[in-house]
Design a protein that fits this description.
By secondary structure, the protein is of the alpha+beta class. The chain is 34% helix and 23% strand. The protein has 3 domains: 92 residues, OB fold (Dihydrolipoamide Acetyltransferase, E2P) (Beta Barrel), CATH 2.40.50.100; 66 residues, no CATH class; 204 residues, Chloramphenicol Acetyltransferase (2-Layer Sandwich). β18 and β19 form a beta hairpin. The longest helix has 23 residues.
């Protein structure tokens, strides 16, 4: 039975997707639930699994094609999964009648060569076909009579490599000719690489944020001495009890949520001529991946404990780098925290994540001299930056919000007591 492989249903906010990498080639046997192809949207990478075990008979859309929900991208023949007496198709041996050879005086024309290639391709195994395809060979290139085996192809490749090495040896002694072939001007050239969909979407959103908001940034510094002492005193028992390390992000999430409760305008957003106050706290955590920045969301962060926050952030970080986050995990959010400090940033102005009206930027923690009780002492200091939409958040509220975060982090017992 022939089964069409369809693009899965995409969320309403996503109109199409781009085909990335096929993990199997036409003519190969594929197993149910194996990874077939990756689809890239402007938010996440989706994996399309093999729906049923069978022969991947057709690939109808190529790498880089833009597809929509329900588009047919491949066809699988389930009946081709097994053949004579139930033997797997990949292991069956077809008749090995060699194709007729043209007379020596008449060179093979392209149509004749195509016919010969088609005839040869019938008796060879999927493994041989794949090997030929990888090295851009035709079956007629392999000088054997009858069925072509994997070893025949490997022998041919070895002989060809040896021949090329021998022929190229004199040229290798002439650096000038090599330089001319590789770079006529002797200079490095430009490389043009198209943006991924995620990178293009990030660029679009950054421009949108700059164009549609009145963004200002306020800064403050935080002494993390007491948090470090608290962590050092309890991290071993915490990890043993909860099976997760006690990091710093849970403290910043907790402090941000408490400050948002005291200054609800920072948790609000603008819709037209209205201010929408969110009476819940969905905190976005910026995660850097090879394809760009993604912001999974901690839902109802005010109800989560420190261990739950640490586990969720660790999970998001791993799956974000692997492209395994779902649309639902990336949607929404009322406030975002981003940590440039992990890359060594000392100070920066984070860009808003619309429609949110504020974002907290963390930076590198450095030991710095500070004055306490008239004495110069060394303390772990972090600079914090709060970017905010000045259309609805006044400077007084922004500065007060950030100062509240500072107070809660400098005296973490207040977080535990809710004061």
């Amino acid at each position: 039975m022939r089964i069409e492989v369809l693009v899965p249903n995409l969320p309403e906010s996503v109109s199409d997707a781009t085909l990335l990498d096929w993990h199997h080639q036409a003519g190969e046997r594929v197993n149910k639930d194996a990874k077939l192809i990756d689809l890239e949207t402007d938010k996440v990478i989706l994996e399309v699994p093999v729906p049923e075990t069978g022969l991947l008979q057709e690939i109808r859309r190529g790498k880089g094609d833009v597809v929509a929900s329900g588009d047919v991208i491949a066809v699988i023949d389930t009946e081709a999964a097994t053949g004579i007496a139930g033997m797997p198709a990949a292991t069956q041996t077809a008749p090995t009648a060699p194709p007729p050879e043209p007379p020596p005086s008449e060179p093979v024309t392209p149509p004749a060569q195509a016919t010969a290639t088609a005839a040869y391709s019938q008796p060879i195994s999927p493994t041989v076909r794949r090997l030929l395809r990888e090295h851009q060979l035709e079956p007629t290139d392999i000088p054997v009579a009858g069925r072509i085996t994997k070893q025949d192809v490997l022998n041919f490749l070895e002989q060809r490599a040896a021949s090329v090495a021998t022929e190229s040896q004199p040229a290798a002694a002439t650096p000038a000719s090599f330089q001319s072939a590789a770079s006529p001007t002797g200079r490095a050239s430009d490389r043009r690489v198209p943006m991924t969909r995620i990178r293009a979407r990030i660029a679009e959103r950054m421009q949108e944020a700059q164009r549609s908001t009145a963004t200002l940034t306020t800064f403050n510094e935080v002494n993390l001495k007491k948090i470090f002492e608290l962590r050092n005193a309890h991290r071993g028992l915490f990890e043993k009890t909860h099976q997760v390390k006690l990091g710093l992000m849970s403290f910043f999430v907790k402090a941000s949520v408490e400050a948002l409760k005291r200054f609800p305008i920072v948790n609000a957003s603008v819709e037209g001529q209205e201010i929408v106050y969110h009476d819940y706290y969905d905190i976005g955590i910026a995660v850097t991946t090879e394809r760009g920045l993604v912001v999974p969301v901690l839902r109802d962060a005010d109800t989560l404990g420190y261990a739950e926050i640490e586990k969720a952030i660790n999970d998001y970080s791993i799956r974000g780098r692997d492209g395994k986050l779902s649309f639902e995990e990336l949607a929404g959010g009322t406030f975002t925290i981003t940590n440039g400090g992990i890359f060594g940033s000392m100070l920066s102005t984070p860009i808003l994540n619309p429609p949110q009206s504020a974002i907290l930027g963390m930076h590198a923690i450095k030991e710095r001299p500070v004055v306490e009780d008239g004495q110069i002492v060394i303390r772990p200091i972090i600079y914090l930056a709060l970017s905010y939409d000045h259309r609805i958040i006044d400077g007084r509220e922004a500065v007060s919000f950030l100062f509240t975060v500072k107070e809660l982090l400098e005296d973490p017992t207040r977080l535990l007591l809710g004061v």
